[in-house]
Structure formats: structure tokens, C-alpha cells
Design goal:
The complex is a heterodimer of chains A (577) and B (67). Chain A has 577 residues and is mainly α. Chain A contains 23 helices and two strands. In chain B, helix 1 (6-26) runs antiparallel to helix 2 (40-66). Chain B is rod-shaped. Classes of the chains: A mainly alpha (577), B mainly alpha (67).
């Protein structure tokens, strides 16, 4: 299958529009507040769609379908357990502090609530993490487009080998994101995320429709794959029978609480979208509006994995060794499947010329939205929390705007570099979960104590974070998933215990880090001097007036929206139980 | 804030939809064997075109309310 002029034209139309949005916003982006915070003037529904889109990077689309093929519909736990409750909590309970404190970033909230060193620790680790994830995502995307061989014809016509496809993909997507973020800053990223959101839906709905039709519907899938794959909770009674190697308690605590709250409630990449909203209620509604489509996303991103497993005896290609082209075999001598190719394989299988262009554009859109999310979060944290905090505190607004633009260039260049370095893991989701486990899992304890316990102190928070991150590293270094070799997968200190799967290890690493951070923060706080109540007003729950929602219409009230989305999610779990 | 995002979304979807519908009507019909015999360019292109026009109508209504 090769691309026709129509496929190229559709991609060009998309590029034209994302760049056009940047150009249209260029004149309005003259202050640092406009560049980094979108002037705090974006309506709730736009922020909500950007919120979910920034998270919906290519690694999510590719990784979720890969997990769907490996673990079945229980992959939806990443949405129904691992996202929705945390998003509701963020909107109902935490946004009032983020938005109301007028902090410009999540690390800045930590400085207001705790102290400078806690902010510094978070700012630096977060900045590194965004560059890292954006680089991984870029690597995955470019690798994928190279393996698909759809670009081979135009490249060989130019006399370039297939390895140039990788280079051109990395560099050209980096340049497009660079240009539109450079021109319009956060507003440009947010508006484009809305555009990208609709494109992703437009590309994936027909794919799932055709796939399901081919598979004979949900019942057809049920008849052709093992029954554990079509039931979200089957076997979760114990770790040995669960498809993920984790029991229901591990899922609820590790994924449902520590990892998901740690990500959705404290990660500036998503919280930044809500902080750009035009009012307090809009900021609180942002994650709740995002939760509605998020709840349905498993049907778009997990379902392709099951479809690919089910139609025509399974269509996921066998993994080939990169150098030799030979089949990769597992421990039992059976060929391993290349799960990351699930989505592109289906695109090529079902989409004719025209729709194929739309489908590829949707993949590109998801990739760019994730990357722009990382880049805008990075440039804000770098400028406000590192440069302004430690390097040049008293410069003019124009200077910080310029530094922000430079940080955008630097952040993207560093991601490109990471893309070339990153090549170790086969399932991208597992890597990201691991990074989040080290950096984010202890962070949740810091925020929960900070927002809901006025006695928590800066010294407590900082020592808790250091201890929690160390605990995560220690736990990872002492345990190993079954069948893995000691090294980057764990067990690099000693092998004290073995987990049934990598995911189980990640969940328990996160639970461990959270618990250690919670205990150390609380213990150190009790013996150090608390800040006076007056300084903590607006930052801690017990010292802040409740937001008044009574005058809003019922469908605008965060608590009511939260209850509706939680009930609907509960229903989905029952339907696919 | 200024920019109404419904405008670019509407125009982009209308253009993409129109391109797909045109190709679905005029192009080779044999290519639809892979999409289970459904002329997916025509049907889905039509949906995108309609969605684009709805977004444009909403944007136009929003503009007239503001002025």
C-alpha cells in the first residue's frame, strides 16, 4: 500500500491548519502571561478537550491498543479506574487551590504552600520528565512510520534509504510543533489540541466500526479470543490468575489511587490546561468535561487491540529483529507479536486511499498534541520555576517571554536528542508508568498532605519527596518481573522478590514510594515549625472558603458533574465485568 | 481570548469532508474491497462535511451574539 495524492493532501490540510492557528495567535502573544498561561481566558469546554488531548499522545494510542491485544478489555482500567476518579477529584477538590492561589504552575503552588527547595525538586524532576516523555513519543512515532513502509516509495524516488524516513519524521514533526508553540504559546497549543482531539476521533471511529463489523461485533470478538480478554475484572481475585499479574487490590491502590491521582492531580502537563480557564468554575469543570469523552475512549483505543487479535485468526504481525530481520522468539520458542503495530496494521488493512490519509493524520495529530503538551509545560516550568526563581529573578516581562521562546526551542531540541537515545523497551506504556512511579508517586502524598493538612511543613515535604523517590528506586532495584533480566527492568541491586508481571512491579513500586513519602512527610512535619495559618489561606482546605456553586445551573456544578461521570463509569465496569 | 476554535475546526472538517466525498464519488470504486465493500470515503466524508458545517454554524451564531 502506498500513499496517493489525496492522502498527502489531507495531511497538508492538517499541517496548514495547525500552523494557521499559531499565526492567527501571534499578534495576541505579547506578554509572558499570554504565552505561558493563555491569559487565563479560555472557555471550559476548550480547556476540557485540550486536557484530554494533551494526554492522548501517540504513545497512548499505540500503547493502549498494544495492551488491549495483550491484556484485553481490562486495559480499560487505565481509564475507568486509572483516570476518571482522579479527574473528578482534581475538578471538585484540588482545582480551587491551583486556580485560586494564582500560582502560574504546579511547582509554584508548592513554593506558595511549602518552600523553595520543594518547588525546586519538583520543577527540575518535572522538566526532565517532560523532555524524556516527549522524546520517547517522538521515537515511537518515527519508528512506526518507518516500519510501515508507506513512505518508502517517495523516499526511494528521492534516492534516500528507509532510515531517512525516521530522520524526516522526527525533524518535520518537531519543526511544526516548534513553530506553532513559538508563535502562540499555550493558547496555540490548546486550540490545536481541540483540533487534534476531533481529528483523532474522526480517524478512529470508522476504524473501530469497520473492525468490529469484520469481527462480527462484540459477540464475534468474544467467540474468538479467550474469555478473560473480554471481561474487565475476570481473574482479578488473585495475582496469579489476573491477566495483568495484579489482583483487584493492587489495581485499586496502585493504578486507581497512587499512579492515577499522582498523574492527573499533580502533573502540570494536564493541570496547566485547567489553569488556563477563564474562571474558577471553568477551571473546576475542565477535568470533569474531559472525563466524559475519556470514559468512552477505551472503545476507540483499546478495542483495536481486541479487533486485531480476533479477525482472520489475528492480524498482529510477528516482531522482527531490527538488524537481521529474523523473527523474535519468546522463551518457549514461539514467535513474539509486535503489539505496537496493532493500530497501523488495522489502518492499512481497512482504510482505502483517502481514509488512509485521514487515519495517518489522526496518528500524527495525537503525536503532536502529546508533544506540544510536554513542550508548553516544560517552557513554563523552566522559565517561571527555574530561570526566574534561581537565575534571574528581577527581569522585565519581555525578557521572560523571550526566555520562554528559547526554552521552547531548547526543549524540542532536547526531545529530538532523547528520541535518538531511547530504544530500550518494547511496551512504551510500561516505561512511562515506571518514570511516573519514581517521580510522581511520592508527589501525590506531598500534595494531599499540603492541601488537606495545614500542619505539613516545607522540611517535611522535601524530606518526604526525597525519601519517596529513593524508596521507589530501591524497590525497583530489589525486585524483578518474572522472566526479565536484571538491569533496566529491575533487580539491579539484588533480587529479593519476583513479580508476575512488569505492571505488577510498577504498581507496587508506586504504592511503596507513596507510603514512604506520606510517613516521612508527616513525621518530619510534626517535629518542625509549622507556618502560621494566615499564610496558608487559599492554599489549604481547612483555611479556605468553599467555592460557591449554588448560583450555577445544575449541569455546571462540579460536584453534580462528578457524580454523573462516576456513576456512568461504574455502569461501564458492570457492563464489561 | 479572541479566537473561536469552532471556526478552524469547522473549516478544516468541511475541507477534508468535501475532499473525501469528491474522491468517493469520482474515484475508483474497486478500492473499497478492503473496507468491506463500504464506500467509506463517501459516507464518512459526508459525516465530516456535515460536522464541519455544524461547527461553522455554531461559530457564526457565537459571533452574531457577541456583536
Amino acid at each position: 500500500m502506498s500513499l496517493s495524492w489525496l492522502d498527502w493532501l489531507l495531511m497538508l490540510v492538517y499541517f496548514g491548519f495547525v500552523l494557521g492557528v499559531g499565526v492567527a495567535l501571534r499578534k495576541r502573544t505579547t506578554t509572558s502571561a499570554a504565552f505561558f498561561q493563555a491569559g487565563r481566558a479560555i472557555p471550559a469546554w476548550v480547556c476540557g478537550l485540550a486536557f484530554i488531548s494533551a494526554n492522548l499522545g501517540a504513545q497512548e494510542i499505540i500503547g493502549m491498543a498494544a495492551s488491549g491485544a495483550k491484556y484485553g478489555i481490562s486495559t480499560s482500567h487505565f481509564y475507568w479506574v486509572g483516570a476518571i476518579p482522579a479527574m473528578v477529584f482534581l475538578g471538585v477538590f484540588m482545582m480551587p487551590f491551583y486556580y485560586g492561589s494564582r500560582a502560574r504552575s504546579v511547582p509554584e503552588y508548592l513554593r506558595l504552600r511549602y518552600d523553595e527547595k520543594t518547588r525546586g525538586f519538583n520543577a527540575i524532576s518535572f522538566a526532565l520528565m517532560t523532555v524524556f516523555s516527549s522524546g520517547i513519543s517522538m521515537y515511537a512515532m518515527a519508528k512506526l512510520l518507518q516500519i510501515l513502509h508507506i513512505f518508502d516509495a517517495p523516499f526511494s524516488a528521492l534516492g534516500l534509504g528507509p532510515q531517512y524516513i525516521f530522520h524526516v519524521c522526527v525533524v518535520s514533526s518537531a519543526i511544526v510543533v516548534l513553530v506553532y508553540v513559538l508563535l502562540g504559546g499555550l493558547s496555540s497549543a490548546i486550540y490545536n489540541e481541540v483540533l487534534q482531539f476531533f481529528l483523532i476521533v474522526a480517524g478512529f471511529v470508522p476504524l473501530v466500526y469497520l473492525g468490529l463489523r469484520d469481527a462480527g461485533g462484540w459477540s464475534g470478538i468474544g467467540a474468538s479470543v479467550p474469555s478473560a480478554l473480554t471481561h474487565a475484572w475476570r481473574g482479578f481475585g488473585s495475582a496469579s490468575t489476573s491477566p495483568m499479574g495484579v489482583d483487584a487490590l493492587g489495581v485499586a491502590m496502585g493504578l486507581g489511587f497512587v499512579l492515577s491521582f499522582g498523574y492527573w492531580c499533580t502533573d502540570f502537563l494536564v493541570v496547566q490546561r485547567a489553569m488556563a480557564a477563564d474562571s474558577m468554575t471553568a477551571a473546576r469543570r475542565t477535568p470533569l468535561i474531559a472525563a466524559f469523552p475519556k470514559m468512552l475512549f477505551p472503545f476507540l483505543v483499546v478495542m483495536p487491540g481486541l479487533i486485531a487479535l480476533s479477525v482472520h485468526g489475528g492480524v498482529i504481525p510477528v516482531k522482527l529483529h531490527e538488524g537481521t530481520g529474523a523473527m523474535v522468539l519468546d522463551a518457549l520458542g514461539k514467535p513474539q507479536l509486535d503489539y505496537d503495530l496493532t493500530v497501523p496494521t488495522l489502518l492499512l488493512r481497512y482504510f482505502p486511499t483517502g481514509m488512509l490519509g485521514l487515519g495517518l493524520t489522526a496518528l500524527l495529530a495525537s503525536f503532536m498534541s502529546g508533544m506540544a503538551g510536554n513542550v508548553t509545560a516544560f517552557n513554563t516550568v523552566w522559565t517561571y520555576d527555574i530561570y526566574q526563581a534561581y537565575l534571574r529573578p528581577q527581569a522585565s516581562d519581555g525578557h521572560y517571554l523571550w526566555i520562554g521562546r528559547m526554552a521552547t526551542v531548547f526543549g524540542i531540541a532536547a526531545s529530538v536528542l532523547t528520541a535518538y537515545v531511547a530504544a530500550q523497551f518494547n511496551n512504551i506504556m510500561d516505561v512511562l508508568q515506571l518514570v511516573f512511579a519514581f517521580v510522581n508517586a511520592p508527589l501525590l502524598a506531598t500534595f494531599l498532605l499540603g492541601m488537606f493538612w495545614k500542619r505539613a511543613t516545607g522540611h517535611g515535604a522535601f524530606s518526604g519527596l526525597v525519601a519517596g523517590t529513593a524508596a521507589a528506586a530501591l524497590h525497583h532495584g530489589l525486585t524483578i518481573p518474572a522472566g526479565a533480566v536484571a538491569g533496566v527492568k529491575g533487580g539491579w541491586l539484588a533480587m529479593l522478590s519476583t513479580y508476575p508481571s512488569e505492571m505488577a512491579q510498577n504498581f507496587w513500586t508506586a504504592i511503596d514510594a507513596f507510603t514512604v513519602c506520606l510517613i516521612v512527610t508527616a513525621a518530619v512535619s510534626v517535629v518542625t515549625k509549622p507556618r502560621p495559618d494566615a499564610e496558608l489561606a487559599g492554599l489549604v482546605y481547612s483555611l479556605t472558603g468553599r467555592p460557591r456553586d449554588v448560583e450555577l445551573a445544575w449541569y455546571q456544578r462540579p460536584a453534580i458533574l462528578g457524580v454523573i461521570v462516576l456513576a456512568a463509569t461504574g455502569l461501564l465496569n458492570l457492563v464489561f465485568f | 481570548m479572541g479566537l473561536d476554535v469552532r471556526l478552524p475546526v469547522g473549516v478544516m472538517f468541511a475541507i477534508m469532508g468535501a475532499l473525501l466525498v469528491g474522491y468517493g464519488l469520482l474515484g475508483d470504486q474497486a478500492i473499497y474491497a478492503r473496507s468491506l465493500g463500504i464506500n467509506v470515503n463517501l459516507t464518512w466524508g459526508g459525516v465530516l462535511l456535515a460536522t464541519g458545517l455544524i461547527f461553522l454554524a455554531l461559530a457564526a451564531r457565537g459571533r452574531s451574539e457577541n456583536h
